[in-house]
Amino acid sequence: MDEKNAYDEIFNYICDDSYPSGAEKDQKRNLRKKAEKFVLKDGALFYVGKSNSQPRRWVYGVEEQKQILTACHTDKLAGHFGCDKMRDKVASRYYWLRVTEDCDETVKHCDICQRNSKKFHKPSSQLHPIKVKDIVWH
Q1: CA-derived radius of gyration, the chain
Q2: Residue 96: pLDDT band by 50, 70, 90 thresholds?
Q3: 27, CA 20 to 30 Å: which among 19, 60, 72, 80?
Q4: Is residue 31 part of a domain?
């Protein structure tokens, strides 16, 4: 199932208590269980999870997801901070089905991040002085 269909199913269930046409009993139960993790606010779905944490807006459009990833990573104020911080930044405000994977892929394909990554630099070894013998070379 693609993201738009998943969004529409949960949205329609929360708004109208309607199920997708032809849905079987177990599919309806799964939809009810998924819908418990979302709230409707200003006409958009927000993910709150099981603990009703800070609502995060569900973004289902691929172009909007790319814009968010770009703004949170390559924007002048974003700072190329790497996977963990980017995931935290994006996931604290937005939700989509592959948000963590998309954040990781963005950093993985970022030329600046790959050039500056610590894991690609050889660790420096300790320097040892070389003893020089007192012989004359001819």
Answers
A1: 25
A2: very high
A3: 60
A4: yes
Tokens of 62: 């691929």
Contacts of 11 (CB under 8 A, 6+ apart): 40, 45
How far apart are the C-alpha atoms of 53 and 126, rounded to whole Å?
Answer: 49
Q: Read out DSSP for 58-117?
A: E---HHHHHHHHHHHHTSTTT----HHHHHHHHHTTEE-TTHHHHHHHHHHT-HHHHHH-
- Residue 4 near residue 60, CB atoms below 8 Å: yes
What is the model's pTM?
Answer: 0.72
Counting the structural domains of the chain, the total is: 2
With respect to residue 84, please indicate whether it lies within any of the assigned structural domains: yes
Average pLDDT, stretch 92-111? 90
The parent domain of residue 111 ranges over: 60-116
CA 21 and chain centroid, separation: 32
